[in-house]
Specification:
Layout (H helix, E strand, L loop, with lengths): L1 E10 L4 E7 L5 E8 L8 E5 L2 E4 L2 E2 L2 E8 L2 H10 L3 H4 L5 E2 L15 E2 L2
Parallel strand pairs: 8-9
Antiparallel strand pairs: 1-2, 1-4, 2-3, 3-7, 4-5, 5-6
Length: 113
């Protein structure tokens, strides 16, 4: 099954991420996941017998939970997850890095000195 990523959030406190995905018949889900690849808006995601494939490459993505999409639930996540890249995806530096649990910033930001 193929899914299209519509929105994404990174949670620096937990080192996990959330993505709104849309599938067949406009079925929308919120995926809560952990992995070595951060899903961005516009990415494609497929489930295969070998695991999860993102943008035609096998990725180490572990789906923790899938929620039915609800605008109020997504708004709650958006309002309560504090990552500078969630609102400004082209950031260069990040003041949250000392407390961030991601090994590498999902948005490519470097720690501010």
């Amino acid at each position: 099954m193929e899914w299209f990523v519509k929105q994404a959030l990174a949670c620096p406190k937990t080192g996990t991420a959330f993505a709104v995905v849309s599938g067949v018949r406009n079925l929308n889900l919120i995926l809560w996941y952990r992995g070595d690849y951060f899903l961005h808006k516009g990415n494609t995601l497929s489930t295969t017998a070998f695991g999860i494939v993102a943008n035609d490459r096998k990725r180490d993505i572990n789906v923790i939970h899938a929620f039915p999409f609800s605008p109020s639930l997504w708004a709650s996540f958006s309002n309560n997850i504090q990552c500078p890249g969630n609102t400004e995806p082209f950031i260069h530096g990040c003041t949250k890095k000392p407390d961030c649990r991601f090994k590498h910033c999902p948005y490519g930001a470097m720690p501010e000195q």
